């Protein structure tokens, strides 16, 4: 059976035309996809466990009331929220490709909301820690990138809610906004990972500046954590940018979307977009 | 005239079929493309100028023999090579879309080679500086990410040379390697920009750790430089990931590639890939 996905062959001038049955088929059930998702989840869990180990073994553990340990809440919350959950929220359209669009969309929005709440706890932790210690806020490159990433992420979530979950937004407007939503989604994940690397380096240079250059275990552990974060980002970006692993609309959605388009745009279902 | 690019409408089951004349037309000559390229180049030049100003005004200038000033060669070379030239090398297929594929390919390879040579000078500068000062090498997250970025970039260049410039590599092998080459190309640019941000933060925490939290001009300048680097990366990633701005094969290339495919694969020019 000829594949229904877009051919990567740039020289092919004739695009394959697919039937509705073809479009509804789980075209991405290849082993490659499964392995890549498994690798990304393994990397994501390893990153969370290593951050926990770093805070637990070398930084004295985590506590909200103790001003010294409150700082340690920050990296753990930001990595769980802004990296792992944000990343996995982007994957749901690839993994749950045979579920209905609406339930996948709600899961996508819910995971991002959870990520935002956990990240907010992480932000409060570091601002409270600074206040208790009398340290300045918002002067470092890590904090500038972090506030930019969090603010744009919140804005992206709100725009996504308005465009894709509010009824009454036209098919045409959704179609025009969607490529921007996808581009900024991947970009914000990458910016979040970059900010995390800046945070790791900043914490190392604040806490172990005297021994970092002697390859002490804490420094090596945190450096490896940084490289695993890069690998997690690369694995997710790879999965998200493969044309052949994109979610295809289910047969009933195709029919429904045609009706919706006709209703909102007044176009013939058979008309070109 | 109906656009010849792939429709972003996921619900359209019928892909447009284009004539060879359509494919050869400069479909990306939209104002949006021109503005985005202009914005990216403005950001790229601003980043180089600000790095020069940082080194010149606050770090005492640049010199190879003076061990204190040799360090300052490093950021300037890495930003010119690993960020600006590497980024612009990725843009040549979009900007020179009406030039022949072969000359565009040679320019792409040449810009990357120039980037590698300039980056190598920047690497030698920092290793020599460390040696003269008796500092340790390769212990920080910045150095780990930097060596990974440079090594994979060199490997990517060598693989690109073998697959795309050596005669005798089959059309099928080139087609299968190309999506990986493109994915790793954009990924390495992002990793290079991330590494640059780590380098900026590291230099600030080494050189102005006492005054950074007081929002001194040097710290603010370097933070803005970091944000402009993020914007440069985002502008380039946007240009490179728009389907409608991809280079379409020229009419004569289409005919030639069919012949090449037939010769190397033994397929009929009209056969499906």
TrEMBL record, chains A, B:
UniProt-recorded Gene Ontology molecular function terms: metal ion binding; oxidoreductase activity
One term under GO cellular component: lysosomal membrane
Membrane topology of the entry: Multi-pass membrane protein
Cofactor: heme b
UniProt cross-references to InterPro entries, sorted A to Z: CYB561/CYBRD1-like, Cyt_b561/ferric_Rdtase_TM
The entry's keywords: Cytoplasmic vesicle, Electron transport, Heme, Iron, Membrane, Metal-binding, Translocase, Transmembrane, Transmembrane helix, Transport
Main location: membrane
Location in the cell: Cytoplasmic vesicle, Secretory vesicle, Chromaffin granule membrane
Function field: Transmembrane reductase that uses ascorbate as an electron donor in the cytoplasm and transfers electrons across membranes to reduce monodehydro-L-ascorbate radical in the lumen of secretory vesicles. It is therefore involved the regeneration and homeostasis within secretory vesicles of ascorbate which in turn provides reducing equivalents needed to support the activity of intravesicular enzymes.
PANTHER family: CYTOCHROME B561-RELATED, TRANSMEMBRANE ASCORBATE-DEPENDENT REDUCTASE CYB561
Name this protein carries in UniProt: Transmembrane ascorbate-dependent reductase CYB561
Source species of the chain: Eublepharis macularius
């Amino acid at each position: 059976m000829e594949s229904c996905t877009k051919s990567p062959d740039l020289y092919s001038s004739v695009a394959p035309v697919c039937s509705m049955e073809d479009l509804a088929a789980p075209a991405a059930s290849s082993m490659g996809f499964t392995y890549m998702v498994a690798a990304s989840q393994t990397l994501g869990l390893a990153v969370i466990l290593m951050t926990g180990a770093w805070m637990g073994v070398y930084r004295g553990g985590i506590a909200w009331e103790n001003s010294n340990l409150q700082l340690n809440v920050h990296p753990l919350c930001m990595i769980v929220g802004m990296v792992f959950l944000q990343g996995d929220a982007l994957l749901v359209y690839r993994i749950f490709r045979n579920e209905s669009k609406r339930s996948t969309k709600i899961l996508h929005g819910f995971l991002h909301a959870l990520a935002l709440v956990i990240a907010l706890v992480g932000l409060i932790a570091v601002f409270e820690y600074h206040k208790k210690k009398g340290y300045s806020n918002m002067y470092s490159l890590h904090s500038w990138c972090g506030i930019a990433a969090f603010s744009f992420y919140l804005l992206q979530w709100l725009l996504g809610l308005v465009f894709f979950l509010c009824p009454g937004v036209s098919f045409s407007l959704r179609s025009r906004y969607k490529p921007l939503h996808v581009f900024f989604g991947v970009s914000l994940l990458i910016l979040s990972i970059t900010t995390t690397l800046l945070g790791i380096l900043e914490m190392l240079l604040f806490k172990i500046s005297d021994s970092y250059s002697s390859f002490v275990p804490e420094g090596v552990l945190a450096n490896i954590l940084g490289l695993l974060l890069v690998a997690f980002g690369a694995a997710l970006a790879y999965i998200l940018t493969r044309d052949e692993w994109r979610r295809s609309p289910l047969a009933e959605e195709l029919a429904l979307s045609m009706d919706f388009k006709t209703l909102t745009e007044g176009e013939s279902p058979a008309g070109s977009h």
